[in-house]
Amino acid sequence: MKTAAQHFIYQNDVLTVDGVPLDKLAAQFGTPLYVYSKTALIEHFHQYADTCKRHETDDIHSLVCYSVKSNSNLAILNILGREGAGFDIVSGGELLRVIAAGCDPRKVIFSGVGKTTEEISLALKHDILCFNVESFAELQRINRIASEMGKKARISFRVNPDVDPKTHPYISTGLKENKFGIPFEEALSCYEQASKMTHIDVTGIDCHIGSQLLDDSPLLEALDKLIGLYDQLAQRNIELQHIDIGGGIGITYDNEEPVAVPEYLSRLFRKIGEWKNANYPGKPLAIMFEPGRSISGNAGLLLTQVQYLKTNSDKHFAIVDAAMNDLMRPSLYEAWHTVLPVVKRNGSALTYDVVGPVCESGDWLARQRKLSIEADDYLAVMSAGAYGMAMASNYNTRGRAAEVLVDNGQVHLIRQRERAEELYALETIVS
Ligand SMILES: *Cc1c(COP(=O)(O)O)cnc(C)c1O
């Protein structure tokens, strides 16, 4: 299987994406610029979809629901939709994106702790596959709205299995003290009450324990807990049709070695197959996944241009034209992104902090990197396909970057660079 690294390689000392030199793209479209490889995106999706296919049986089915929040560009959603993906959304806006991208809302699952009345109505109107309900109050709201609309809402509870995913605290979501999901001990009573509601159709159970997991043991531990709950519900005649294990598999940013997706899925399907054959032979069950980062993360990078090189009392800074508003992960999580020169130089290397022009000390993209660079050089900030553009803001009235998709040598602009006029177009002066 190809790794991401093989999609972004040096050819004659120039970094390329699927054969297209990045300095050409930077010159043509300007910087900062997000660049994605369609081939990489599709390969990463098929690591899930193909392994699922191999493990499907007459009564075990699966659906891979791409997490829209990791990268929500319409072109990306459209490509994945055509490959057969469903979608995991966390807002009404993301549902409208899925529809605008030409994808099927009936393959959408809706997660998130704060679904509003408007969002729930919108989702019911479009007949989404399932609400991942995160509180009893939310369940009551869904039941009321569905009743007003004369509909039945399919729901699963997002339970909090209280396993430690051993990842960054900001991206760990399955511990007791997190705001996500319902506590494991309350799940049975929630299901019992839900099963009596007139406009609720209880279809599944789900969890999502965190992000950037390198090891699948916490996920398999969470699966055991979900299976245990499934059994307890079955004893009470509440028969679930699906188990959704969430997303969370990590990627290589630096030298991490995340579990390979096919290996994780094989272990998971083996566990499910053994349990189901022993207890519920012939009973249909769908297994669902909500991967984001492991599909989009290493399918993209952020191109930026060095504006100035500067030395303040022994410390060297490369001031570039991308900033924390373009890629927030370093400021937010102190995340590491590898930084590569687009065209390699032979000169002597210095140790730089790569920083943006935004007026915050937290505005940095990389620290203490040995680089041989000069002003005007282009740099590639790697592994920026997930939670990059999707988290970008307009802080400092900076228009968000343009986005380009490389499709086997063909280059497509998939989002124009924002202009300043667009940023204040919705504002009004009071006289
Ligand atoms: C963010 C999120 C995901 C995707 O997580 P990754 O780590 O990107 O795979 C899946 N499910 C839910 C509910 C999420 O909030």
From TrEMBL:
E.C. code: 4.1.1.20
Cofactor: pyridoxal 5'-phosphate
UniProt-listed PROSITE patterns: ODR_DC_2_2
Modified residues (N6-(pyridoxal phosphate)lysine): 69
Alphabetized UniProt keyword annotations: Amino-acid biosynthesis, Decarboxylase, Lyase, Lysine biosynthesis, Pyridoxal phosphate
GO molecular function, one term: diaminopimelate decarboxylase activity
Record SUPFAM superfamilies: Alanine racemase C-terminal domain-like, PLP-binding barrel
Leader sequence residues: none
Residues involved in pyridoxal 5'-phosphate binding: 248, 290-293, 387
Domain Orn/DAP/Arg decarboxylase 2 C-terminal: 34-385
Active site positions: 359
Swiss-Prot/TrEMBL catalytic activity: meso-2,6-diaminopimelate + H(+) = L-lysine + CO2
Residues the record lists as binding substrate: 293, 329, 333, 360, 387
Highest taxon of the lineage: Bacteria
InterPro entries from the UniProt entry: Ala_racemase/Decarboxylase_C, DAP_deCOOHase_LysA, De-COase2_C, De-COase2_CS, De-COase2_N, Orn/DAP/Arg_de-COase, PLP-binding_barrel
Keyword Secreted attributed: no
UniProt domain Orn/DAP/Arg decarboxylase 2 N-terminal: residue ranges: 61-296
NCBIfam families assigned: lysA (TIGR01048)
Subunit structure: Homodimer.
Annotated family: Belongs to the Orn/Lys/Arg decarboxylase class-II family. LysA subfamily.
Protein name: Diaminopimelate decarboxylase
